[in-house]
Amino acid sequence: MSFQCRQFYLKDDRCAMKVSTDSLLLGSWVAVAPTDSCILDVGTGCGILALMMAQRTSAQAKIQAIEIEAGAAEQAQENIDASPWPAKIQCAQADCFVWQPQTPMDLIVSNPPYFNEQLASQQEQRRIARQGSQPLSAWLARMATWLSPQGRIAWVLPLNMETRLEVPAELSLLRRCEVTTVVGKPAKLVLLEWTKASVECVNESLSIRTAGGDYTREFRQLTNAFYLAGEHQNSSSSLF
Fold it and tell me: May I ask the CATH class of domain 2-228?
């Protein structure tokens, strides 16, 4: 499988988890500051979030991507090498519970393996990608130790898993966005952004499609820098 964004192209046939709506939304929604110079993508898969961060940041920014599964890490590196920003991104095959960054991170993005309540997959590669080796709360606690004083962590999760997540005491929720597939339907996804600073959370909402099946204006505006089908709704590259 492959996916064409405006400025880069992704192959994901060797990745257990394919290009998804979740990552496209998170990479478009997360706030990226001009001063963000050190950015980390944890569990990069085919590299989509790392590449989205490369597109959104200055030439001086450095992006690190880590991925535990060898085939996915190799494919992410190939996608990075074929992109306009191979010098901005470093990709490593690594377990986030072993790996340690050399410098504090200004922004950490992740589409974490949140299928840990489902039956274990018989395919080990897919099991690790979907379920991980540690609970999500341990992932978040680990990432919190890597942040710079003003750093942020941004995740995407199923809405029903948010309340089960144990958030480290040093993190405050900065932004929260509930996502519905169709206007008027119950939300199924939530986009979350935490920071170490003491802040009041900004609550948002987003619907991907109208009741008639068209992309909403808000979705097109959010993803326009990346998603070709956001403008051309009959595109064969649609994820939805």
Answer: alpha beta
Q: What is the structure's pLDDT at 125?
A: 45
Phi-psi domain of 63 (left: phi exceeds 0; alpha: psi -120 through 50; beta: other): beta
The answer to whether 23 touches 156, Cβ cutoff 8 Å, is: yes
Q: How many angstroms separate the CA atoms of 67 and 74, rounded?
A: 9
Please answer whether residues 109 and 63 qualify as being in contact, where contact means their C-beta atoms are separated by less than 8 angstroms. Answer: no
As a whole number of angstroms, the distance between CA 210 and CA 75 comes to 35
The structural domains of the chain, with segments of one domain joined by +, span: 2-228
Grouping H, G, I as helix, E, B as strand and the rest as coil, residue 69 is: coil
Q: Cα–Cα distance between 179 and 187 in angstroms, integer?
A: 5
Count of CA atoms in the C-beta half-sphere (13 A) of 168: 19
Q: What pLDDT score was predicted for residue 208?
A: 97
Nearest partner of 42 among 142, 121, 123, 112, judged by Cα: 112
Report the alpha-carbon distance of residue 221 to residue 237 in Å, rounded: 18
User: How much is the pTM?
Assistant: 0.89
Strands (E) located in the chain:
2-4, 9-11, 38-42, 62-67, 89-93, 105-110, 147-158, 172-182, 189-195, 202-209
